[in-house]
Design a protein that fits this description.
mainly beta; 9 strands
C-alpha cells in the first residue's frame, strides 16, 4: 500500500508539471503512441526446471507529454499499458506468463542537433508499473489451463528504461518512433505469498510509433 501511495504521489507531480507547462512554462508536445513489447524474465531464478525463458510478445499503448527543460533537454512522462511476461517450452508443452501493467516511465530526453527536419534523441529514466493482471497458461497435447497468479505477484514493478527515438515533422504534427530496453530492478514474485524468495525480474524491449500534437 505504501508503495502504491508513493506511486500516486509521483503521478500527481507529473500531472501538476504538465498543467504548469501548459501555461507556458515548458510544454512542447503531447501525444499518443503504440507498439510491440517483447519481454522475458531475468535474474538468478529465471530458469524453471532447467528451462530458460523465451521472449513473450505483447502490446504497448499509451500517451505522453514532453516538457522542455533547457536547450536540447526534455522531460517526458508517459502512461502506458504494457503486456509483459515470458514463455517456456519443453517436451511439447508451452507455459506462458502474462503479466499486464499500467506503466509510468519518467524519461530524461536529450535531443541531438541536426541540420535537417529529422529529430533524433536519446533518453533514459525510471519506469514504475502497477500490476493489472498476472496469469499463467500451460498448453500441450491435452489442451490448456490458465492459473491466476495475482496474489503471488508484487503490486509494483520498477525498472530502468533507456533507448533512442526519432521525430519526423508531418505538417503541424510530429511522427515519432522509439525503441527502448527496460531493465527490471525488482522481483515480480511477491515473497510474502510464495514458498521461497525468487529473483525473477521483468525485462524487455518496447518498439513504438506515435504522434505528437
Amino acid at each position: 500500500m505504501k508503495r502504491l501511495t508513493g506511486l500516486f504521489i509521483v503521478m500527481a507531480i507529473v500531472v501538476g508539471a504538465g498543467s504548469a507547462a501548459a501555461q507556458g512554462t515548458g510544454l512542447v508536445g503531447k501525444g499518443i503512441k503504440a507498439g510491440l513489447a517483447y519481454y522475458t524474465f531475468t535474474g538468478a531464478d529465471k530458469e524453471i526446471g532447467g528451462v530458460a525463458p523465451d521472449l513473450e510478445p505483447g502490446l504497448a499503448v499509451g500517451a505522453f507529454v514532453t516538457l522542455a527543460l533547457g536547450p536540447g533537454l526534455d522531460l517526458q512522462p508517459e502512461i502506458l499499458y504494457v503486456q509483459k511476461g515470458a514463455q517456456y517450452e519443453s517436451n511439447g508443452y508451452t507455459f506462458t506468463f502474462d503479466l499486464d501493467y499500467l506503466e509510468i516511465p519518467i524519461l530524461l530526453k536529450y535531443r541531438l542537433g541536426t541540420g535537417g527536419g529529422v529529430r533524433p534523441s536519446l533518453f533514459a529514466g525510471p519506469a514504475f508499473a502497477i500490476k493489472l493482471k498476472a496469469e499463467g497458461t500451460e498448453s500441450g497435447p491435452g489442451g490448456s489451463e490458465t492459473v491466476d497468479y495475482g496474489d503471488q505477484t508484487n503490486a509494483l514493478d520498477v525498472g530502468l528504461a533507456f533507448g533512442a527515438g526519432l521525430g519526423i515533422p508531418a505538417g503541424a504534427n510530429l511522427v515519432t518512433f522509439d525503441a527502448r530496453y527496460t531493465l527490471g530492478l525488482t522481483d515480480w514474485p511477491d515473497p510474502a505469498d510464495v514458498d521461497e524468495e525468487l529473483s525473477m525480474k521483468n525485462s524487455g524491449w518496447l518498439v513504438m510509433a506515435g504522434i505528437t500534437f
